[in-house]
Amino acid sequence: MSSLLSLHPNYYLVFEILGIASFLMIIIRESASRHYRRVFEIISCAVFGIILEIGDTYFTHTYSYSSNFLIEVMHVPLVIGAGWATIIYCAMLLSDEYNVPWQLKPFLDALTALMLDLSMDAIAIRLGFWHWVIPLNQEWYGVPFENLAGWIFVVFSFSFLMRFLRTLNMNRLSTKMLAMFSPVIAYAALTVEFAMFDMLAVLPYGINHWAAFLSSGYHPGLSVLYDPQVQMWKLIVFIVLVVLMAQVSIWAVVKYWKNDKWHFDSLSFTVLAGMHLFFIIALFTSGIYRELPILGVIGIGLFLLYCLLHLVPHFVKRTPSYFFREIKESLAVRSEQAEKIVETIFK
Asked: What separation, in Å, do the N-terminal and C-terminal C-alpha atoms of the chain show?
């Protein structure tokens, strides 16, 4: 594996450039469109991403990042925080295209992000971007099942909080305080969700090994979390979680399809599709696919599923695409205003 990686040392640089560029592109579009509240949301999401990564790497000790990234914050690459913000925000843009109640959109957001992680994470660890404490042949091709569930919790927590804040009056001090501390609030909610997941997965082990479980002070170590019985229950709980999320999402889309006012957001599609394609291309150019051809099937299959989710309603509804439309309209208005000012001056 090391010989393969030594032939492709620029994956880190390309990953950082694409991640930061995507983040800045969204910031620029929302700023130019004067959606300053949305700009605050994506910056808050980036802070949330950095907080959760620092917390996870320092307290759980289940994974660590490579030192090959250029810009780091407390041993966490800055691009990871920007990446979380980009993924969550683009997932929210996608679900906003469906005319479903805001309370249901976080379910779709979480599944959209999970489709990316199911292919991305197994490839990223083989590129050396980060390292888990379990062998590469355990759980999801070297990725713990709780991390897959964690993607659901991370995206759902932040998406739900942001959408809830959108329903409140931003002129109120209480709303401003909630928005200011939104990364911390989302991280607290994430911690509770993780605790519930671990409790359900470890509970059967605790019953069967009650003496050892009590002696651990109810804080199971890595030997417990990656015990074969616990691994099986983590998979079961994860599958149940995904099925429930998918049921809610499908029900919401089907129920509100007739009332759907569809608009296709090209920026959202391009950014997430680019992330899918980056890891698929890295899979084949690095030679990892020779070791695990199934990762190619998974990556391409999930990419096509993502395209289906994003593109089918667009072609059915036959609506125009939206990339920088609002910026173009804003510039047109300003151009007309400038022409009137010039005409007034030189009359």
From this structure: 74
Neighbours of 10 (CB within 10 A): 8
Bridge partners (DSSP) listed for residue 32: none
Structural domain spans, the chain:
2-345
Q: Distance between CA 225 and CA 231 in Å, rounded?
A: 7
Per-residue confidence at 67, pLDDT binned at 50, 70, 90?
Answer: confident
112 token code pair:
């959209």
What is the pTM assigned to this prediction?
A: 0.84
What's the 3-state SS for the chain?
CHHHHHCCCCHHHHHHHHHHHHHHHHHHHHHHCCCHHHHHHHHHHHHHHHHHHHHHHHHHCCEEECCCCCCEECCEEHHHHHHHHHHHHHHHHHHHCCCCCCCCHHHHHHHHHHHHHHHHHHHHHHHCCEEECCCCCCCECCECHHHHHHHHHHHHHHHHHHHHHHCCCCCCHHHHHHHHCHHHHHHHHHHHHHHHHHHHHHHHHHHHCHHHHHHCCCCCCHHHHCCHHHHHHHHHHHHHHHHHHHHHHHHHHHHCCCCCCCCEEHHHHHHHHHHHHHHHHHHHHCCHHHHCHHHHHHHHHHHHHHHHHHHHHHHHHCCCEECCHHHHHHHHHHHHHHHHHHHHHCC
Quick: pLDDT tens for 103-156: 999 999 999 999 999 999 999 999 999 999 888 888 999 999 999 999 999 999
